[in-house]
Structures are given as structure tokens and as C-alpha cells.
Amino acid sequence: MEEQATYGATEDGGLHRLALTEADGEIRDWFIDQLRGAGLSVRVDEFGNIFGRRKGSDPDAPPVLLGSHLDSQPNGGIYDGALGVVAALEFVRALNDDEIETTRPVEVVSWTNEEGSRFQPAMQGSGVWAGAHDIDVERAKTDDDGSTLGEALEDIGYRGDVPAEPDTEYEAYLELHIEQGPKLAAAGADVGVVTGIVGFTWGAVTFRGEADHSGPTPMRHRSDALVAAADLITAIRRIPGTLGDRTVGTAGYVHAEPNSINVIPGEATVTWGFRDPDDAVVERAYQRVLAEAEHAAEREGVDYQTEERMRAPAISFPDRPVDAVRRAADARGSQYLELVSGAGHDATHLTSVCDTGMVFAVSEGGTSHSPAEFTSWDDCYEAATVLANAALALANNTTG
Amino acid sequence: MEEQATYGATEDGGLHRLALTEADGEIRDWFIDQLRGAGLSVRVDEFGNIFGRRKGSDPDAPPVLLGSHLDSQPNGGIYDGALGVVAALEFVRALNDDEIETTRPVEVVSWTNEEGSRFQPAMQGSGVWAGAHDIDVERAKTDDDGSTLGEALEDIGYRGDVPAEPDTEYEAYLELHIEQGPKLAAAGADVGVVTGIVGFTWGAVTFRGEADHSGPTPMRHRSDALVAAADLITAIRRIPGTLGDRTVGTAGYVHAEPNSINVIPGEATVTWGFRDPDDAVVERAYQRVLAEAEHAAEREGVDYQTEERMRAPAISFPDRPVDAVRRAADARGSQYLELVSGAGHDATHLTSVCDTGMVFAVSEGGTSHSPAEFTSWDDCYEAATVLANAALALANNTTG
Fold this sequence. Notes:
Two copies of one chain form a homodimer. Chain A has helices at 22-37, 82-97, 124-129, 135-139, 149-155, 183-187, 225-238, 279-300, 319-332, 347-350, 377-395; strands at residues 41-44, 50-54, 64-69, 106-111, 172-178, 191-197, 199-208, 212-213, 248-250, 254-257, 263-264, 267-276, 303-312, 315-316, 336-341, 355-361. Chain A is of the alpha+beta class.
């Protein structure tokens, strides 16, 4: 973990390792060295996803896949993604050290561009591999400088030679990730057994009023788009409290035009994001935000337009991998909490390929996407051990 | 008016003539041709303010000064500023046509950079000339491309050779301007007699909470800076209704960080602007916005900082120029409305130099700073005639 954190390190102890940049190229070189050093057979697919396979005693059995991602957010932390990749690598090293032969092959993977900071969408490499996205469409995506993802892959030498798709059936996928939320730490848990991933709706509302001089225009003559946007931001804060226990809602983005201290805003855009483990609650949140946008526009006498940009259904992981993780935690005597992930992960896409589960490591204070992101080495070890034992059970068909 | 509107004309009938750009250089050349064509002696001061003087029968008497500005907002209208300059020019042409000799000299002026779009602050040329600003400080101001105002002045050849300050006492300054508000049109008035200019406070509040992943962070763990900003925007909309009849309040600018659909905003800035003809009301609005910022920050558990950027006292024009304008309107049988300007004008600074008054022309719908800005030729003529007759009375000491 300390070694990987030197590639793209920031001065304040964080990580700035955006997908397919030079730093990402360097960590990939390092990762492949580690995979080869552990005796794995390495392949890189055409979308840059990197796999290392360890043979099983039954070479034809569908393998167990473990991994996460090595790219980071801009000025992110050193645990998000990397901990899951390093833990998977450490699992096969431990198998080597103890000369354990598993029935099934075990694969370690690092997915291309999980974060979605430089190229959108997030979880792109796992999405392409799982068949959720067309590879040509995703390779044509551009960053802010106009470089395509395809060019960026070639620049760092990571357009691989095998197709970006499963070349065999897979038995299961397990991903260890930091929680990125405060629940484990708040409950005093050692580790998290993840039972699924919340569904969400993302979208934007644009209000259009009339830009005018802020001095001579009486209050009652105004149609102020930013006032309507503020009304909606307040509503987005309020809506979750009227829905589920675990509903969250965020207005993350706002933009006003002309955005001048001295002009009544003629246009204002605000985004919404609502998540909940229950798709029906996500739908209710969506209907509520549309209704609130209409009320806000009416009150201020402005026009408005809404656009839902993304909707993802909630995911329930199947019993088998969840049980494997739960038993591994039980066997250690770990205090675990079962929880639904509030963030999307590569595991989201893997659910369409094979049985998928996740292990969460404690995030102190719940902070992530920041240099302040922190998981103690004890908590890293705890989660990695649970991952390893769950993976071992799946690889040896001893999940009961 | 039609001729000046060709310099910097936009396709939709508006004007894009930012201060000290090439288009401003061209309109200045045109204006000096007109001044010379009317037999005036022209001077350009070191800040680019352009004056044309017509002699009086008493050459030593303090002159009467008339004018406004020729620069425009980005994609502004053709009347804002230009109408006052053209009307002043037309007054001396009418004096010439009718061979009228005034007792006092009459001067026509076009002030540099009234709009404050390319270089800040607004009303800059009149401010330097009246002694409100230091010329070296203002010449060092830069635009978004890093060019200084001093360089821009020299680029268009308008760094003049006389000091940017009054070279004599002045009897009075009169400025004709479009109202930029809806009151004259709403009252069915022909012209406005301006009795003063509102005071205002401008400032900004920055809220600082904690940026975090919008998915796994429960609502009660959030300190969302944008929610606090939205709360304040709503308060700014509400405050004027609790103060004076003529109080206005605007949140014109908002910015959130990191401003991403998927991240709880860790920082958000919003500006306030309040105006009222009564300084005590402006102060109450200021105290109210501070209190509302504190409440908003408390409710959301964020820190905040406030910064008042500008405070201008309300101005009451002296009786003499206001009476001169009122009598000129009465003498024509014009329906006039007395009103306080809701916007600042070059006249603001001139009040420290000499007796100052203003004439407002009707703004249809109150729209300005937009190509849709419109004043009918009849309304232009009406206001220009009132200006001319008021100026004539002041220039001949016949104000009673």
C-alpha cells in the first residue's frame, strides 16, 4: 500500500493518479511487475484492464476474480480502489507463501478508469468488459483537452491485445473497497459485509427567467432564475427526510448566467442526485424533484426544463458471495455490519457476469475523494483477511 | 443615434462596445468629428475622457457640463449612455442652428468606461476626473487578458494630454440617461425628473463545509456549503419586502466547489446587493444579510465569512438642477415622474464637483443591458428637449 501510494503522490499525503495519465502508466507497470513476481500469467485487454491468473487444480473450472481499480480522483486518497487491488494481490501471495493450491483458478484484476474524473462515465473499464458499454464508443470519449481515451491508452502503452470481455465463465467476483461513508466507524465495526448497491437518479434542472439590471428593477418585476434554483436546492436537502431512512439527496452543481454581482440571474442550472437501496424510493425522489422544480419555477415566474441524466437500479448481491464474506468475518470473530453500498463500484457491472460480493474496510470519519481519506493498517488487514478467506472458500467450493 | 449604433453593432440590433476596445476607439473618432463639426474646442484627458467646449459670452464663467458615456455592456443596447452623449451634442448643435449665445460656456463630455465590464470599477472615468479614484491605480487595472487599462488607452490612441481633473470650476452637470427600470413606462410618463441616486451595499458570503462523496454520506453527517448558500439566496429575495417600498436585493453570483454532480459542495460563495434611497435602510439590509448568513451557516453546520465589497451612500441632487429639469418639463407640458435612480451613473461622481441633476428617458419594459433595450424616438426627443431647456436655463442663469 505504501509503495503504490508513491505513484502520483501529492505533497499532503494524497494521490493524484487520474486514469490513463503518466502516473497511471507507472502504477500499471508496477502492478504488472507484482503480478509477474507472484507467478501469475498476465494479460491486458483492449480497454487496458489488467488481469493476472493463478492456476487452479481444475484448470477448466470457472475462476474466482478479485480486484478493484488503481486510478484516483483528482487529489484523492491512497485507499480508494488501490486497497482492493493490493488486497487481491496479497491474497495470491499468501497462497504462494503457504503453497496452497485452490481448486479453481484465482484472478486479480485492476479495472481501467473507475473514477470517471478524466473520462466519463465512471466504472468504465468494468462496464466495457461486462458488456454494459460499447468499446468503440468508450474509446472515442474525450478528456477536457480533447484527447480520446483510445489515444491516452496507446500513449501509456496499455491498449492490450486480448478482447475486453470475459474469455471464460467466472465463478464469482469479490471486491474489497473502503466504505467511503461513516457507518462502520460509527458502529465500531471491524469490517463491512456488503449486501448490495443503492440505486440512483441523477439529473439537472435549468430555470430561465429574465436577466436585468439589479438596481432599477423592482422586486415584483423580477423573474430571478437563481432564486428558483435556490428553492430547489433547499428542496433537495429536504426530500430525503420525507422518504427512506437511507435516502440521500445532493445538489452538487450550480451555475448562474450571467453570474454578475450586479445583474439579476436570467438562467440557473442545478443538478440533483438521489440514492436509495429501494428503486421505488428512487422513483419517488425523482417525482418529488420534478414537482419541486415546477413549484419553484411557478413561485418565481420562470420557465424550467428538467433532464434525467442517469438512472441506475438498486443491486442486491446474491446469497452465495455475501454468505462467503459473512462466514469469513464470523470465522475470525470480526465485528461486522451488513450494509448497502451508497456509492457505485466496479462490482456494479460484474453482477451481470457472475455472482458478485463486496467487503468494506472502515473509512475513518467516512471521508473519501480527499487526501484526508484514512483507513488504519489494522482495518486494512482485517478487510483483506476477510476477503482472502471468502475468496478461498469460493475458490475451493467450500462455501457450504 | 442610428449612426453611433453602427460602431460595435451586433446582429440582433444591440451594441457590443466595451471600453477601450477597437469599437470604442472608432466611436471616439466619430464623436470627436461631431464635436469639431459643431465648432467645439476638443480636449482629451489622460484617462481618455473627451470634452468639447462651446464658448459663452462670459468666457470666465464656470461652464455647464452635459454628457454621459459611449461604452456599452457586452451585448448591450444602443441607448444606455449613448443617448445622453448624443442629446448633449444635439443641444449645442441646436444652439448653433438658432445662433444662440449662452452666458456660460457649455461643455459636452463622454466619460471613459462607465460600464465596468472590461475594467472595474464602473463609472471609472468620471470617478478619476472627480477625484474619487487615483489615476495611476486605475490605469494599472487589468482586463481578463491581463492588458492594463493604460495600455488599452494607448492602443486606441486615447491617452490624452490634459490632466484628468476639472481645469475650472463648473456651474452644473446634467446627464440624460435611459431609466433602465419600468417606472416611467408604467406611470405613462413622458420623462423622468431624477431627484437622486439610491445608496447600496455589495458584498459576498463564502460558506465552508465539508466536500464528500454524495452517495455514502448520510444526510445528518453533511455540512453542505451550497445548501447554506441557497438559504441565503432565498433570504436575499425576502429581505427587501421587510424593509422599504423601494428596497431591492439581488444574489447575482454563485459559485460552488468542487461543483460536481456527485460531490457534496464543500464551499459556496454567493454575492449580495441591496439598494435603497435611504442610507439607514441600506444599513438595515446589510445587518439583515449578515444575520441571515449566520443563521444559514448554523442550520447547515458550516463556517462562513462575509466581505462587504462596496458601500455607496444615497445621493440627493441639489434643488437647483432638479428645479431646472422640472421647469423644463413643466414648460413643455410633459407628464413627468420624479424618481430616484436605482442604478449608479457618472452623475454620482459629479456631485462632488458641482450641482448635478439627471433626466431619465422612458425605457420600454424597463429592460437594459440587452439588445432588447428600447426607447422610442419620441421618448428620446422628449428627454433630449427637457435636457436642452434645463441646460439652457442653467447656462443663462435663468433658473429663477
